[in-house]
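Reply to thread "Modeling small-molecule complexes from scratch"

Following up on the discussion above, here's a worked example others can learn from. I took a protein sequence and the SMILES for NAP and predicted the complex. Inputs first:
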Amino acid sequence: MTEQMTEQMTEQMTKPTNLGGSFTLPGAAMTVNRMGYGAMQLAGPQVWGPPRDVNGAIAVLREAVASGVNHIDTSDFYGPHVTNQIIKQALHPYPDDLVIVTKVGARRGEDKSWLHALSRQELIDAVHDNLRNLGLDALDVVNLRVGGIMAPSEGSIEAPLTVLAELKRQGLIRHVGMSNVSPQQLAEAQAITEIVCVQNMYNVANRNDDGFIDDLTKQGIAYVPFFPLGGFTPLQSSTLDAAAASLEVTPMQVALAWLLQRSPNILLIPGTSTVQHLRENLNAVTLDLTPEMIANLDSLGGGPRQA
Ligand SMILES: NC(=O)c1ccc[n+]([C@@H]2O[C@H](COP(=O)([O-])OP(=O)(O)OC[C@H]3O[C@@H](n4cnc5c(N)ncnc54)[C@H](OP(=O)(O)O)[C@@H]3O)[C@@H](O)[C@H]2O)c1
């Protein structure tokens, strides 16, 4: 074995010990490492039914937790039910520091479509489905998912959020977050109950929420971008490729490192169904992007950010 090969193997085996630093959710005794894991990819194709390799899915979850991940994002409408059942099978009884964040407000149609499910009864049922399938007495954080996938749609969130606030008072939910929301909807939500996190679509190439993120940073609220790697349309860019080549890493790792340096309240939940991609993603916390790389990557989303 050559010296270079030994070095490469040691590098692959070395696990990042500091997963991007940590963040404490506002008003909550919950501190999570900034690099987490999104469990949506653990269901079958189109997030429907069981995965082809259940043991592989279990291995991804166990490797994530063994590597220090203590923030897992999920929902009972992934599968439906399947993803939560796999999380329970892989990790229950859960480590004390593990924060499982779930979301309600949607359901799956028979044709695998994603439909709103925001009525009082649907929300109550969804919370109980999550409790049962995760094997929990109370849910750490529940995001109320409203709006469209690609962008929020304006409209009052009072009725559905009032239901979650009630379930919080009953002790079934510890903390509440919002997903697919606008700044106006967040403000409306904050008058009803404390909001600890916002989960919207955002990545190096989709930067509609730049101003919103800056506002959430000031408020100390976590921003958890979904589709950090582009989701169903993986990010592709010569700028990402160039930075990756010069750091001898992958473009996806650069995309995650860019998010980590973007703002201290950004928490990452990249999704993957493979241990290899999980390791790659976790190792993104070790990257140091140069100011020039950051400026080039900033320009992908339409130019440098306004301070
Ligand atoms: N609130 C919402 O409405 C909403 C919507 C969507 C998602 N989410 C949450 O956000 C999380 C993240 O989103 P996402 O999983 O949809 O999208 P993502 O993290 O942007 O991308 C996942 C895709 O990237 C691939 N991938 C992952 N790591 C990779 C790597 N190192 N190299 C190459 N390809 C890689 C995955 O395939 P492999 O399996 O082959 O790795 C998968 O196809 C989800 O798990 C879910 O919890 C929330």
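What I'd highlight from this example: The mean pLDDT is 93. Residues 38-41, 73, 103, 145, 149, 179-180, 199, 226-231, 234, 250, 252, 269-274, 277, 280-281 surround NAP (CB under 6 Å). Questions welcome below.
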